[in-house]
């Protein structure tokens, strides 16, 4: 009798946890978000190497220096190669390989990115230079933000204007961290 009660209790707890997780995921997907993505992105112009100028701290980037992202067009997706040096600008190179797909109807301004199947993340292009020399990449719930440039340095005035734009979109810019790009100087 005790064993049957124990199994029923474990089943009930497991079912409640599963229900709570399902409800939490459903809430996140239906939470209202502001559509701050750019009108359209020409992926042929967007591909290439980007240097991270600043970002909101993300656990997967902890201890990174000299972070870059390199994109290339493949037959059915965009190949993503993120690199950084761990621990210092002279540290060991760490590389993450991923794939990205444009979200239908977004004119390539929203992508889904996966570094580990079946998990995908949102990659929203929320700011883009007309000459594709800088970009701001965000997230619908404002969890992540990256300020990217085609060169490892960005003029202070431009950086400040992008930070102001991100703040006006609701990003917590007080948490922005500048990326040390000393290995490119």
TrEMBL record:
<comment type="similarity">
    <text>Belongs to the calycin superfamily. Lipocalin family.</text>
</comment>
<feature type="lipid moiety-binding region" description="N-palmitoyl cysteine">
    <location>
        <position position="27"/>
    </location>
</feature>
<protein>
    <submittedName>
        <fullName>Membrane protein</fullName>
    </submittedName>
</protein>
<dbReference type="Pfam" id="PF08212">
    <property type="entry name" value="Lipocalin_2"/>
</dbReference>
<feature type="lipid moiety-binding region" description="S-diacylglycerol cysteine">
    <location>
        <position position="27"/>
    </location>
</feature>
<dbReference type="InterPro" id="IPR022271">
    <property type="entry name" value="Lipocalin_ApoD"/>
</dbReference>
<dbReference type="InterPro" id="IPR000566">
    <property type="entry name" value="Lipocln_cytosolic_FA-bd_dom"/>
</dbReference>
<keyword id="KW-0732">Signal</keyword>
<dbReference type="InterPro" id="IPR012674">
    <property type="entry name" value="Calycin"/>
</dbReference>
<feature type="domain" description="Lipocalin/cytosolic fatty-acid binding">
    <location>
        <begin position="41"/>
        <end position="180"/>
    </location>
</feature>
<dbReference type="InterPro" id="IPR047202">
    <property type="entry name" value="Lipocalin_Blc-like_dom"/>
</dbReference>
<keyword id="KW-0449">Lipoprotein</keyword>
<feature type="signal peptide">
    <location>
        <begin position="1"/>
        <end position="26"/>
    </location>
</feature>
<dbReference type="GO" id="GO:0006950">
    <property type="term" value="P:response to stress"/>
</dbReference>
<dbReference type="InterPro" id="IPR002446">
    <property type="entry name" value="Lipocalin_bac"/>
</dbReference>
<dbReference type="InterPro" id="IPR022272">
    <property type="entry name" value="Lipocalin_CS"/>
</dbReference>
<keyword id="KW-0564">Palmitate</keyword>
